[in-house]
Please model this.
Amino acid sequence: MEFFLTLIQVLDSTIRLATPLLLACLAGLYSERAGIFDIGLEGKMLMAAFFSAAVAAVTGSVWLGLLAGIASSLVLSALHGFASITFRGNQLISGVAINFLASGMTVLIAQSWFQQGGRTPSLFGGGRFEPINFPLAETIDGVPLVGPVYSELLSGHSILVYAAFLMVPLTWWVLYRTRFGLRLRAVGENPAAVDTAGVSVVGLRYAAVAICGVLCGVAGAYLATALQAGFVKEMTAGRGFIALAALIFAKWRPWHAMWACLLFGLLQAIALRFQNIDLGGLIIPVQVMDALPYILTVVILAGFVGKAVPPRAGGEPYVKER
Amino acid sequence: MTLMKSLMGAAAAVALTAGAALAEPALIFDLGGKFDKSFNEAAHNGASRWAEETGGTYREIEMQSEAQREQALRRFAEAGSNPIITMGFGMADPLSAVVADYPDTTFVVVDVTWLDAPNLRQVGFAEHEGSYLVGMMAAMASKSGTVGFIGGMDVPLIRHFGCGYAQGAKAVNPDINVVANMTGTTPAAWNDPVKGSELTKAQISQGADVVYAAAGGTGVGVLQTAADEGILSIGVDSNQNHLHPGKVLTSMLKRVDVAVYEAMSAGENVETGVFVMGLAEDGVGYAVDDNNAPLVSDDMKAAVDKARQDIIDGNVNVVSYYENDSCPALQF
Model:
């Protein structure tokens, strides 16, 4: 029973840690499926984290904060789109620039607005996303096995967590069952064919980048207003890059992305719960768990477990033939 | 000729102003940043106090990456700043590479005590003694018999904190369970409040009802989660009691501000050598103010003040982690 409860707690922590990864991973999925590589996920999350916390702190409404976070992330997305779609610049460089921009701007603006050393005031009350408790969660808690799973694991997360997991089937449906999704995937594989069919490549790519911006915005807002109560500089701490690793690990597919993010979240949760894991004399240091997401991604990339093929037109600006 | 004249004149003017200007002190913050509400902010407070009282000015820079350390040191030294005050153990290697090249400049380093150079003032703190006192308070405030410790980056200095804390807790209750976690092994561990929160939740689920955060900006997440979940927390370096009034048991004070203030006041002629500020020098201690007064009972205060005196008198010996890179009270 002790073991079971620990397991539930680790899985609970997994869900919290996997949510920002999942949102960022799906954001990257839309963008990269349309042929726009985006290593600026980290920067967009950071910017959204700051603006959501700042607006929530000033207005006292977390929903306005969420909107502000999404808007700020969209601005960066537009910048990325402008540089890499309209001006056909290098997508990686534009992404790096966005990361630097966000890292510097957030602290600068925070210092000028709040004078608290690059952080926002602590949020309380309506300024934060509160956990949602499912009906009967308290009552059913005593039931063995089912009780803790329902009340600890499933219930008691913020609304953004449930939204993030609902995004997975929605993304699958959009990509594989709608006309828009078909075109989006096609534009990442063979934009010339899409163009020949009379569909705007530029328009589709902007749409994908915009969706990416919205999802990154939600991810950032989740970090700052649901997991934490305010913004701290560099609070994304590399999650955007782990999300990219998860995207490659999942080979650019929505359901796989969810499992990859949950796996990476689980590895983090285990690393946080147990400092060193003792497997009958063999001690695994905590650093191994921290490094595993990257190691696994390299293994996948090296082609040991199937082959990870990125969208064929990824990273290449589309030039219309004349 | 006229051109030559004006050039010479300009050069002379530059030389004059350079000679006339008093050397300004310089302050180099560590990676946590000037406003980390903790270690670096204490240095900033000390420097601001000096600037306000004397009307002096100083130059400062916040480190963004490891690579900047040596560069910043050389730039300040070449610009004539004196003394150059640096923060954190990460400065040890860059300093040992740089100090010999600028024999006329005095360097000050906080949290480093093991270097050997004639123009270096090294200020260390007996963090284990201060942590011992807050460890005692944690053990007295704990009802569950389990207390937690959350460190930032896994380095000997932070183990030093944790070790003193565990010894203090065990001095009050030999059976107490001390859960210790480190946030990470890279400098990012000083600024990851999300991870700090998760670690706190994990420690709570293991029974901890008082957690001590020695983790820079990550500690903000620890203190927040502790307040949300209704347990007590202990702040570090600066007085953090005000962050969550009534939820922060106390803060382990490390008077970095005093160290910086003294170095700046002494100016160029600051005494060099190794200085360790412990309980006797009021270099470390615990914070009591209006925000946490209701949490600190008279018994607690009496016991901690007695222990403080015992440590100063040498009746109680708090083992330092540095002595043999291990801790008698805690396994890392």
